[in-house]
Predict the structure.
Amino acid sequence: MAPADPGSGPTGAPPAPEVEPPVDPLVDLTAAPEADIPLVPAGIVAQTMGEYLHATTLRVRSGESGMLPVVLGLVVIVIVFQVISPHHVFLSAGNVVNLFLQSAVFMVLAMAQTFALLLGEIDLSIGFVGPVGAVIAVQLVQPSTTNWPWWAAIIIALAACALIGALQGTLITRLRLPSFIVTLAGLLIFNGVLLIVLAFGPFSGYPSLSGSQPNVRALYNLMWGHISPLQGWIVMAVIVGALSLNLFLRDSRRRRSGLVAPPVGLTYLKILGMAAVGVAIVVVCNLNRAAVGTLEGLPWAIFIVAGVLGAWTFLLQRTRYGRYIYAIGGNPEAARRAGVNVNAIRTWAFVLCAFTAGIAGLLYASYLGGMSNNVNGGQLVLYSVAAAVIGGTSLFGGRGRAAHGVLGGLVIGGIYNGMYLLGLAVQWEFIVTGGVLIAAVTIDALSRRGTVASSTVRF
Amino acid sequence: MAEASAGEVLLRLRGISKRFGAVQALSDVNLDVPAGHVTALCGDNGAGKSVLIKCVAGAHEPDQGHIYWEGRPVRIRSAHDASVLGIETVYQDLALADNLDIVQNMFLGRERLRRHVLDEDAMERAAADTLATLRVTSVRSIRQPVGSLSGGQRQSVAVAKAVMWNSKLVIMDEPTAALGVAQTTQVLDLVRRLKERGLGVLLISHNLNDVFSVADRIAVLHLGRMVLEDNASVLDRQIVVEYMTTGGLNMTTTGPSSGNGAVDHGAG
């Protein structure tokens, strides 16, 4: 039934109607771009600072406030505690470093939780999955028993966490079980596993990281080790230089080809800002913060947190995998129809979540100088959700970044630290943190409503 | 390239039948969709419009009948098969992720990479080019999230996403159903531009205002049968309504091509 004459339809109706001769497509295509260039609205190629600020204000007002609330919140916390803390000790070098170390576990756990939250899911198990990884590493390096090298212990610990994540992720995606329940069960199960692994060896449940044996020291130094002041300057210069160069080259390339790009001035401002933050961090950390003797230099933990932040920011913003996580969080059906393997992406997100929790667990063990049965995993996981949400990650999926976890972790650490300095008991810390969480989730919900409202108005 | 010579039949359906259990959804349906023209597919609820486009889009496979694409017999078993041929479908729900921006949505599932990293610059340029040729210029920035767009703009983005891949036939399911007057005009203009670029458009619509303002050909399904397929210029609203509701004309002497008498008859 293949037609000999493609021009005539078998129903007898001539397919080319004489009513309206179609415009020659070639003519139209060549004419269209010239005619349209002036019509491209200014927002697409906002080049001046004024236009850019205007576009940003519009974005914030339409509900895409991003990191603005949490940055403002941090500024408020810093000012308040600096003013009211005894002897204005809040911003002293020793306290700032201390605050960072206290926050580091929350920051990394929040970055772990971000993978689940971006999908609109939640992983409640990481409060004990991370510590399970930690206790495995702590047990393996014990000189009196297994005496593994520190790096092998870390690899096994993180692999175990990733495996746990793969198991839970498979249950959630293949059997379509709700992540809330699966990981709630995981929270209980891995609390039990933690206690079992703790009991191994002759440590009566308290394997510790004290001692001078190099493998044990290596784990202990994840949180408490630091590099020399000179090394600090060199490393920071390299990092800031590389980031600035990358930013500058990208922005100028985009400006040259007429793509959406910030104005030149803003690129310089950002580079200046990065340099200022880098210098400030190094200066503060290089001050002697010991009451007796010398304690100075950038702590290793800064590089661990920065490494996780950099890796996951790259993964989420620059790779296809990250793009699919956002797409699934925004509209799983659209992602599925676009040919995305939704189940694989979701399972891997739980793997990455548990893996990152393992890193947080190692920091936690190092902070405590060992592992014991008084790990409060329930509180850890709630703080991970709180930190991510306070930082600006949405509980409803599709919006958030790794950096939100870091900022939210700083807020929680800041409140904790400030309350401690004021001599207020732990109950006040809980109450204030809860209040901040309510504020953050309110901002999230309101901004979602704002987005919807503004689109219906224009509709 | 997308521009086939206007009038060439892109898609030819012959004797398409589809049954779901006891329900005969389509029986012996013939339809021609030429390039460079807008073909409107009308029909009451349950007439089989959705089943028919799903057969072409690869969501269903017909039980009987043949699909010819540019004169060659083809089988379309999946959405992927359809898009390889150059058939893209814009469903009513548009399948856009609100949290992603326009560029990200247009390239979803087909991202361009440079050294394993997303090539945002190339994607943004290509998206801007496509939007410019379709003269979709009312958006503030192609880097704004789709959730902040109006209904007509979202429809435009979904259409631009569909035509981006050298597609030759765009199937649109009720594109104006949820839109206001101004937005509807915007989308119908877009449909005309697709036609000007030489693409075939198969438009499913209830709204006869829209159908008569853009369609070159009109096909009417009634209870799974194709009861009318003719040039829009020889039809009018009354005839189409009558075919949609009753499957034929009540006056026995009038045919679709000479049917002026049916106007006064007013069955709809």
About this structure: The mean pLDDT of chain B is 83. Chain B touches chain A through 72 residues (CB under 8 Å). Chain B has one domain: 9-235. The longest strand of chain B covers residues 9-20.
